[in-house]
Amino acid sequence: MGEGSTHITHPPNGINFEQLQNRTNQTTIAKFILLGLVDHYPELQPLLFLAFLAIYFITMAGNLLLVVLVLADLHLHTPMYFFLGNLSCLEICYTSTILPRMLFSLLTGERSISANGCIAQYYFFGSLASTECYLLAVMSYDRYLAICKPLRYTSLMNGRLCLWLICGSWISGFLSNTIITSLELQLSFCGPNEIDHFFCDLAPVLKLSCSDTHVVELATLILASMDTIPPFLLTLISYVLIIINILQIQSKGMRQKAFSTCSSHLIVVTLFFGSLISVYMAPTTDILKELHQYFSLFYTVLTPMVNPLIYSLRNRDVKEALYRTVRKAIGLAQLP
């Protein structure tokens, strides 16, 4: 072919150049923009930063303290505190998948996140949220055995069963979200790239996909239902049986104390599961669509903060363990 001539290559299968360019553009999006709370309330950005920074500090401090106490104090080496220690480790990881990125965005105004980073954030968030559902059910079952079957508790809740329950919770949570994320990775994104949320939740990300998302949505519905509804029902049934057993206690003071603790636990569990179910399994309506971000705050931000307060830091055993640990630390510090 002579100099200056133009060689035109026709795309295969009858696809014109515009279609080929559009297909190429579907894979060019490398970043998403997280709108979320910053976009809705820009004038409140400094106040939101301080509020979420305080929440993150309280969450990390409370859960880290509990983990240290469970590891350091032999009096807390029981199934109940073994489960609580695992829950605190989970909450540390869980809240750290959301809040540091949100704080960075509130502080700098930078709202972009890479596509791979977005999918990774959802994977760890979803896996840890699912694991927490199972852990809460395990903890409620443990309390049911301790209160309703006290004579058989030691033999029933032995070390081997505790280990199996914990491993099963973590494996189940990560397995279901590995399936969902592997399906999400097969999607194409061609724009727009603005996510109307404060983190990379699955539903707003799927709305940006140019691919058929029905398989991902169906898998998410099935797996999310398996990860939330059975654990929630087991947790609810356990606490109902616990409350019935408490009502049979003769001492009014002991009955009120036990009921106060269990009701606090039940409120936190109901908020966590209720907000999860409303976001991931309730029918999408205009009203719920507007409220999804606020429901998400319950299970992503608030429950990790209040769980150590409700479940353990109000507990006398934990207070005594804290006193012993502080006294031991002071004694070691005074040694020459």
Q: In summary, what is this structure?
A:
The protein has 336 residues and is mainly α. The protein is 74% helix and 3% strand.
Walk me through the structure:
By secondary structure, the protein is mostly helical. It is 74% helix and 3% strand. It has helices at 17-25, 36-40, 45-72, 79-96, 99-108, 115-148, 153-156, 159-184, 202-206, 214-247, 252-280, 286-313, 316-333, and strands at 31-34, 112-114, 194-195. Strands 2-1-3 form a 3-stranded mixed beta sheet. The longest helix is centred in the middle third of the chain and has 34 residues, at 115-148. The N and C termini lie far apart (90 Å).
Helix residue percentage: over 70%
Roughly how many Å is the radius of gyration? 25 Å
Main beta sheet, described? 3 strands, mixed
Query: How much of the polypeptide forms β-strand, as a percent range?
Result: under 5%
Number of distinct beta strands: 3
Low-confidence stretches: 1-27
Strand order of the largest sheet: 2-1-3
Number of helices: 13
How would you describe the shape? globular
The overall pLDDT, averaged over residues, is: 82
The structural class is mainly alpha
Order of helices and strands: HEHHHHEHHHEHHHHH
